[in-house]
Amino acid sequence: MYHFEKPVNLLAGIGYPANIETVLQALAFLEDWPVAERDASHKIALDACQAHLLGHVEAETVCSLFREFAKRHDLLVSDPHVSRYQKMANQHLSLQN
Fold it and tell me: 82: which residues sit within 8 A by CB, 6+ positions away?
């Protein structure tokens, strides 16, 4: 229900790769977005997330709108290996703790 068929790979923060795989992750990302930088694409993606939770739109609709938001803000990463590198980095960090 909540999962995207294909994750949205983007850069969050200061170049940190993020792999957005679900509506709930997209919603959290959008809610954390700075208020001063919110625009129409942000509102549309946020509204779609909320509509999905109410059962009004499909997860893939949310994914498309969230991907468009990320594209408009130059957040998308075209490298399909970002998720693999992120998992490797997370494993490395968890081994150090």
Answer: 9, 17, 19
Residue 95 to residue 77: CA distance in whole angstroms: 26
Q: Is 90 helix (H, G, I), strand (E, B) or coil?
A: helix
Structure tokens at 90: 């997370």
Question: Residue 82 corresponds to which tokens in the numbers above?
Answer: 């970002």
pLDDT per residue as tens digits for the range 5-16: 999 999 987 778
Contact 47, 29 (CB under 8 A): no
Among 50-54, 64-68, 87-91, which stretch is predicted with the lowest mean pLDDT?
87-91
**pTM for this prediction:** 0.79
Which residues, at least 6 apart from 48, have a Cβ–Cβ distance to it below 8 Å?
57, 61, 62, 65, 66
